TrEMBL record:
It comes from Ditylum brightwellii. This is Uncharacterized protein. Residues 41-52, 71-84 have a biased composition (Basic and acidic residues). InterPro entries: LRR_5, LRR_dom_sf, Surface_bspA-like. It comes from the Eukaryota. PANTHER family: IG-LIKE DOMAIN-CONTAINING PROTEIN, SURFACE ANTIGEN.
Length: 321
């Protein structure tokens, strides 16, 4: 019986060194998994951090781009406003300068449109000298003087409106304004100054005021499109070269009030056909209309007292026509 029990007894489990190491290996595996998890977590955190940093950089870059874009817009707007300020110019007074062939305008050189401030009483000397893009100007009521060379060589200026308050237009004010086609000089102006409209090549219509007393030398010289000129009663003097080289001028009417006509006043006016003249010595003594072969009609206005009894005999200016 004992032997049977002994045979049936469960043999003892042998514990090997390998078995004794299993818990340690399992623990190691768990630790490795933990390390992998930690490493993976670290990697993800690092990646997340990098992503966050990248997002921050992207956001910062986007913000910087937006700011730079805004700066560009502001600069563009400023340039646009600056350009508009230059081209749409408000004149508040001031003078330019001219020395020999050198000149400097007071206004920006590329101005195209001008508004004259209501406080202005005088357009300064050479204020718009050689503003070659200026096309038109309306000078408001209150301005009394257009200065010397004010619009000198404004070659695109085609329209000028002068106020009734204007009393003086100084010499060379519209010198070589080649596109200027007409001008109305208001009542109150007594003098058309020297060379004021010289070489205004498209000038076809000039209206002179009843207050006019004198047309200075070269005032309309080289106005090659001018076809007729009526000088108002009250004008006493026509300066030398006043209408010289007005090559298609064909009709001139001078009033009886004219007492003096300067040398070569109508030289180069080869198409003159109709003249109304005062009967004064200058016409004969200066040969003002000598060789004007195109003349078809000459009318003399009332004679001055010293010529009333003198016959028109001999070598008069008409004999050469």
């Amino acid at each position: 019986h004992k032997t049977k029990n002994k045979q049936n007894a469960t043999p003892p489990i042998e514990t090997t060194a390998q078995d004794s190491q299993q818990p340690s290996t399992h623990q190691q595996a768990e630790e490795e998994v933990s390390e992998d998890i930690l490493e993976d977590t670290g990697i993800r955190r690092k990646e997340q951090k990098q992503e966050n940093e990248s997002d921050e950089v992207t956001t910062a870059t986007h913000q910087q781009t937006e700011e730079e874009g805004e700066d560009v817009k502001i600069k563009t707007q400023e340039k646009k406003e600056d350009k508009e300020e230059k081209t749409n110019y408000i004149y508040k007074g001031g003078e330019g300068a001219k020395e020999g062939f050198n000149s400097r305008s007071f206004a920006p050189a590329d101005v195209t449109h001008v508004t004259v401030h209501p406080s202005v009483k005088e357009i300064g000397n050479y204020a718009f000298c050689k503003c070659k893009k200026l096309e038109s100007i309306v000078i408001p009521e209150g301005v009394k003087v257009v200065g010397k060379g004010a619009f000198y060589e404004c070659v695109q200026l085609s329209r000028v409106v002068l106020p009734t308050t204007i009393k003086q237009i100084k010499d060379r004010a519209f010198f070589e304004c080649m596109q200027l086609s007409s001008i109305v000089i208001p009542k109150g102006v007594e003098l058309v100054d020297a060379y004021v409209f010289i070489r205004c090549e498209k000038m076809v219509d000039v209206e002179l005021p009843s207050t006019l007393q004198k047309i200075e030398r070269g005032a309309f010289k080289g106005c090659i499109s001018l076809t007729s000129m009526k000088v108002p009663e009250g004008t006493e003097e026509i300066g030398s070269n006043a209408f010289r080289s007005c090559c298609i001028l064909n009709e001139v009417e001078l009033p009886p009030s004219v007492k003096s006509i300067g040398d070569d006043a109508f030289d180069g006016c080869e198409l003159l056909r109709i003249l109304t003249l005062p009967l004064i010595p200058d016409i004969f003594e200066k040969d003002l209309f000598k060789d004007k072969k195109s003349l078809t009609k000459v009318t003399f206005s009332s004679c001055p007292s010293e010529l009333e009894t003198e016959p028109l005999e001999g070598n008069t200016f008409l004999h050469a026509c």
